[in-house]
Amino acid sequence: MIFDTHAHYDDDRFDGDRDRLFNEYFPHSGVCGVITCGTDEQSCQKAVDLAEKYPNVYAAVGIYPENTENGVNIEKLRSLSNHEKVKAIGEIGLEYHYEGVPHDIQKREFERQILLANELCLPVIVHNREAHNDTLEILKRTKPRGVIHCFSGSVEVAKEILKLDMYIGLGGAVTFKNARVPVEAARYVPLDRLVLETDAPYMSPVPHRGERCDSVMIKYVAERIAKIKQVSVEEILEMTEKNARKLFNIR
Ligand code: NI
User: Fold this and answer.
1) How far apart (Å, rounded) are the C-alpha atoms in residues 81 and 70?
2) What is the distance in A from the centroid of ligand 1 to the CA of 238?
């Protein structure tokens, strides 16, 4: 069974066939759980609406680093989190690849959202792009439960994340031809700390690069990780589903 711990099903690329995906395609293709993540207030509300509409869909609410310029409305996130199918605060974190929101604002708003998650006893879903040192510094200080999504760090960074009792999320990037860093991470991270994700509609794995991604494509990620770790695909899917249910408190 496939548990996709990170997707963006509010994206308008799903407007034409969202019902068909969630009501037919996913149930028939072994998708047993999806976390759809908000990135701004509007998409957070949409994530909650989707979780309410479809079984096996859960929401994460949070403000993406590039949307934190004017400060995060914590009260709004708190009230959205009141819904029983909101299982995490995310997607939050630090984005240093693009010259957008100043780093001090990103860090401040990341930390404010972590503190909300800690207060609500929810895990965080963390975006970290080219910001390993600052991300680690904040996580060490605030100690949330959670996952580093689309993990892109070295084995050294993975080691620090595991020390914090957090999970590592791997997706399409492990299947890319030039994937050295994520493959090393996949080899290093123990199976009880791994979760799978798509970041749909982005990050389609080989052999679907360039197409719209959806949760069923996780099977290619699982196959690749199974090869790297020399275990069966079934074991990868079973363990990562178990991990996801534990992390997000979903039965
Ligand atoms: Ni994402």
Assistant:
1) 21
2) 23
